[in-house]
Specification:
Blueprint lengths: L3 H25 L2 H17 L6 H25 L3 H17 L5 H5 L1 H12 L8 H21 L8 H21 L5 H18 L11 H26 L8 H21 L11 H20 L6 H28 L5 H12 L13 H12 L5 H22 L5 H11 L4 H29 L3 H17 L6 H19 L5 H24 L4 H27 L10 H20 L8 H22 L9 H25 L27 H15 L5 H11 L6
Helix pairs in contact: 1-2, 1-7, 1-19, 2-6, 2-7, 3-6, 3-7, 4-6, 4-16, 6-17, 8-9, 8-10, 8-11, 9-10, 10-13, 11-12, 11-13, 12-13, 13-26, 16-17, 16-21, 17-21, 18-20, 18-21, 19-20, 22-23, 22-24, 22-25, 23-24, 24-26, 25-26
């Protein structure tokens, strides 16, 4: 399959890897430097595929060079003892794998960094070789980084930001159509389509397409808020799509919200690049919110039309608050505003209570510590998969040393290349790896037999083999990539120490051992893989969100002395669930549950969490009528109890049978009831909107519960 990016990657590797190898081998005459320059070039140019602009790539490659240097030293230092090497591999490999929580570049560079460790850890060597090995690694890092910066495809634009901009624009169109009385199903369908495109871009890779930088965090939050704003807008349109005769304050508020959403979309699309921070639309939207609330209070409960206007005001304010948060995140994501400005603005808009600054004022190191702490749990796919990979690599190092194979490095690399997140996927990949290695051995053996001892012919074949091996990843089946890499290795080792076709045969033996280690580790440590963690994290997210909602309602109703404390746990559970789902969707092999069913459940956790967050941001109303308060408590208890029951179904079975799930339904309060304040009406609306969407969670939850009760090998 033709790929311009793959072709440029292959050209870079073809120029750099043989060139560095020739310099270190022929000019310097150092085999250690030549070996690590060749494999370092392959790690830098093929195994690592960093995203972003040139600055992002420079930082990522610099980090890889430093991390690889440290790992190379550790690997060389521990290889003299089997026990020490195996024990050291566990924390080293775990740290490298787990560092992927920092962002996509850290995750995509894990294999390249580990190559700098497993090569010396599983190969003969002494401490005295470290300078030569570091020289080869740094030569490859410098040349590879320069090649990437000088010869990379022009960025095609940020697809995620463009998708987010499209959602913001379609939402603005829908609000304006409602105000003009022109809303229709076509406009609603456009909103849904744009939202699906955004989520598809956000989940297109196994790694979260955002990192720990302030702008990255803001973009991730903007995606979540845009999905929520779409739900709010669609619910409002279906309840009352023609707003031509709505009260003037609500019309003005929605009109301002549409303008802010359109501005946010323009910023995310890049139209505001380099503009001065001057945001009158945001201040205007907040002023309209204050005016709308003042008018609602003047109307007063019990007056004719109060309930209807309070409901419309609920929709308008929910959309307006979300639009404010979206535009604030857009300002951060595009670099127009900094975190301090946004924090100050949010304090001005929301009194410092609602929608706190997602990026915070902490440094990147502190944010990484916070992310790592959230993932330090067996409920985290990053934690469990990092531990599993670390144990598998440690076992491979021990097996390679104890079995005294000729090239133990290939045992460890075989384990690293085929280890997946469940036993079935690992086994299937292992078979493809062996098939590719056998094919590569056949091709390489025939090539070496034809070439004989001619070093000139080997030097001609070397760049061709590198080109094919570098082009194959992502464009050809896994087995073809393995075959091309085997040919490359056969030629490389024959240039170092001529041994003929036997090099390929040794690689088949070593890769077979490595694949076996990977399959055994996958079967013993985590046979169900990410699928089990997705269910566990879904259960956690539903439970944490239900607790947060219950606390928020008690706080707003005056039944709780302290503000809700469940936000941190609910957000942490949501992040872990998001990561687990991405890893599950990225697994090779067929899935036993449709991804759309999973996204429906994930959407249910997000709706629950954001509803609780919105409720927690309402002003406290200690004057709510006792009967109204009792009814709100009953509804809240019914909802939270149902969510806990749902969590039990999708959680690990523990011998519990499937229970019937029937979504509760609430009748709206009687119109124009004198005891209903607008706060009480808004609480009724929040709970009612949650209940309306519970029915769509039942079929996928039942299906997931049935799957979790089957044996893992079925």
């Amino acid at each position: 399959m033709w790929s311009r990016a793959a072709a440029m990657r292959a050209v870079r590797a073809t120029v750099v890897v043989p060139g560095l190898f020739a310099i270190a081998d022929k000019l310097v005459g150092n085999l250690q430097m030549a070996t690590f320059a060749a494999f370092g070039g392959f790690a830098t140019l093929v195994l690592a595929a960093f995203a972003g602009n040139r600055r992002d790539k420079l930082i990522a490659h610099g980090g890889l060079a430093l991390a690889g240097s440290a790992l190379l030293v550790i690997g060389t230092a521990v290889n003299s003892s089997v026990a020490v090497a195996a024990i050291a591999t566990v924390p080293v490999a775990f740290a490298v794998f787990f560092a992927g929580v920092a962002g996509p570049n850290a995750a995509s560079g894990a294999t390249a960094a580990l190559l700098a460790y497993v090569l010396p850890a599983a190969s003969p060597g002494t401490i005295a070789m470290i300078p030569d090995r570091l020289a080869g690694w740094w030569l490859a890092s410098l040349a590879g980084t320069a090649a990437v910066l000088a010869f990379s495809p022009a960025p095609g634009g940020d697809r995620l930001r463009r998708a987010a901009a499209r959602v913001a624009g379609t939402l603005a169109d829908q609000l304006e159509a409602m105000l003009a009385g022109e809303a229709n199903e076509t406009g609603l369908a456009a909103c849904v389509e744009a939202k699906h495109e955004l989520l598809a871009q956000f989940t297109a890779t196994p790694f979260r397409p955002t990192g720990l930088a302030t702008a990255d965090q803001a973009l991730a939050n903007a995606v979540e808020l845009l999905e929520w704003c779409t739900s709010l807008t669609l619910d409002s349109a279906r309840e009352r799509g023609d707003l031509r005769d709505a009260a003037e304050p609500e019309r003005a508020l929605l009109n301002r919200a549409a303008g802010v959403l359109r501005d946010a979309g323009s910023r995310l699309a890049g139209a505001d690049a380099g503009r001065r921070l001057d945001r009158p639309e945001l201040d205007g939207l907040e002023a309209e919110r204050v005016r709308s609330l003042r008018q609602l209070r003047e109307l007063g409960p019990g007056r004719a039309g109060f309930t209807a206007q309070a409901r419309l005001s609920f929709h308008a304010h929910s959309i307006a608050v979300t639009a404010l948060a979206i535009d604030a995140d857009a300002l951060l994501a595009t670099g127009i505003a900094d975190a301090d400005w946004v924090a100050e603005a949010r304090t001005r808009w929301f009194g410092g209570e609602t929608l706190p600054d997602p990026a915070g004022r902490l440094g990147r190191t502190h944010r990484f510590a916070g992310v790592a702490a959230r993932h330090a749990s067996v409920r985290s796919v990053w934690f469990v998969n990092s531990l599993r990979g670390a144990v598998a690599l440690a076992a491979a190092v021990a097996v390679a040393d104890l079995s005294s194979v000729q090239h133990g490095f290939w045992v460890v690399l075989g384990t690293l290349s085929v280890l997946r997140t469940n036993a079935a996927a690992t086994g299937a990949t292992a078979l493809r790896a062996l098939l590719g290695t056998v094919v590569g051995f056949a091709i390489g053996g025939a090539l070496l037999l034809a070439i004989g001892t001619s070093s000139t012919a080997l030097w001609v074949a070397f760049p061709i083999a590198v080109f094919v091996a570098a082009y194959a990843p992502g464009t050809a089946p896994f087995a073809i990539g393995q075959a091309a890499f085997t040919v490359t290795v056969a030629v490389l080792f024959n240039l170092l120490v001529p041994a003929g076709w036997q090099v390929g045969l040794v690689r088949i033996e070593d890769v077979a051992i490595g694949c076996a280690v990977s399959v055994v580790a996958g079967t013993l440590l985590w046979p169900r893989g990410v699928a089990s963690v997705v269910g566990d994290d879904l259960a956690d997210a539903f439970r944490a969100g239900a607790v947060y909602l219950s606390q928020a309602i008690e706080w707003v109703s005056g039944l709780r002395e302290h503000p809700p404390a469940g936000a941190v746990r609910a957000i942490a559970a949501g992040v872990r669930l998001d990561d687990a789902l991405r890893a599950f969707l990225a697994e090779q092999g067929s899935k036993r549950i449709d991804k759309h069913e999973l996204w429906r459940l994930v959407g249910g956790t997000m709706r629950l969490r954001l509803t609780a967050h919105a409720v927690a941001g309402l002003p406290r109303d200690g004057a709510i009528d006792l009967a109204v308060r009792a009814e709100l408590e009953r509804r809240a208890e019914t909802l939270t109890g149902w969510y806990h029951l749902l969590a039990e179904q999708v959680d690990r079975p523990r011998g519990t049978p499937l229970a019937a799930l029937a979504a509760p339904r609430f009748d709206p309060p009687e119109p124009d009831t004198p005891t209903l304040s607008h706060h009480a009406i808004w609480l009724h609306e929040y709970l009612g909107h949650l209940a309306e969407h519970l029915g769509e969670l039942v079929p996928p939850a039942v299906h997931l519960a049935e799957i979790r009760r089957r044996p893992w090998w079925r």
